[in-house]
Structure to design on (259 residues):
């Protein structure tokens, strides 16, 4: 029976602020399990409570969403066949049955990986139709060349003849071996194969964004943060790649250059 304050419960699942919730509760506008609750600091059972505010049901998010900063050497699957699963990195208090990594990063790739038990959301996110873009920071073996911008924008053909969707790429200011690339699809080893197709080589790869979910700078490798359902919806509101400042990735760039 996890007990939670009513105002916390509602604010995590809606756009109401705690002060709005306090006022609405005082006015008798909040009902928990069929009973008007006038004090917003009342503790409720977050697993079972049925909450209404102003006549509308508050969705009891059944799912858990974690954003992991994946370290090198872990596999993004629930199986342990090819190495240690990223699932081992989830602290016990955040573990939940049915969780899985929504999307894949190679064993040697780093960065943002969403882990959830919400299959419907994962499906929506990974579906080619939704085109959720992902931004990767790459460390290249050879200097970035401006010709990559047009080649990738046209949709590069990989060595096996597979054609990629148009992708955006730009160099990171003052670091000629670092670049940002935005993809709207997820072919096997895609970023590495795209740079191989222009005769370069990806030495390190870190995913910085998944849709509108941005890897927090203070999230260390192997650590994860829990996201609220309303934040996860940001997945579908990605930043504009053109506006995505390469300054922003300054911290990550420094790491990439030194590792
Ligand atoms: N592209 C790659 O090559 N590797 C990844 O892990 C993700 C995208």
């Amino acid at each position: 029976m996890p007990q939670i304050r009513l105002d916390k419960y509602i604010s995590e699942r809606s756009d109401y602020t705690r002060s709005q919730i306090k006022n609405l509760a005082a006015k008798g506008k909040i009902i928990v399990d069929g009973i008007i609750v006038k004090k917003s600091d009342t503790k409720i059972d977050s697993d079972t409570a049925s909450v209404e505010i102003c006549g509308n049901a508050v969705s009891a998010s059944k799912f858990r969403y974690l954003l992991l900063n994946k370290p090198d050497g872990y596999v993004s699957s629930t199986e342990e066949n090819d190495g240690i699963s990223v699932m081992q990195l989830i602290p016990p208090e955040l573990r939940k049955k049915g969780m899985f990594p929504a999307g894949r990063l190679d064993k040697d790739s780093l960065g943002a990986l969403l882990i959830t038990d919400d299959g419907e959301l994962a499906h929506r996110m990974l579906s080619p139709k939704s085109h959720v873009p992902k931004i990767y920071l790459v460390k290249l073996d050879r200097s970035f060349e401006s010709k990559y911008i047009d080649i990738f924008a046209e949709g590069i053909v990989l060595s096996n003849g597979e054609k990629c969707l148009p992708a955006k790429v730009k160099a990171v200011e003052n670091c000629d071996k670092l670049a940002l690339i935005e993809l709207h699809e997820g072919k096997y080893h895609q970023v590495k194969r795209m740079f191989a197709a222009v005769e370069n080589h990806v030495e390190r790869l870190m995913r910085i964004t998944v849709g509108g979910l941005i890897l927090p700078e203070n999230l260390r490798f192997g650590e994860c943060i829990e996201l609220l359902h309303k934040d996860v919806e940001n997945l579908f509101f990605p930043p504009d790649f053109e506006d995505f400042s390469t300054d922003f990735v300054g911290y990550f760039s420094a790491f990439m250059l030194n590792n």
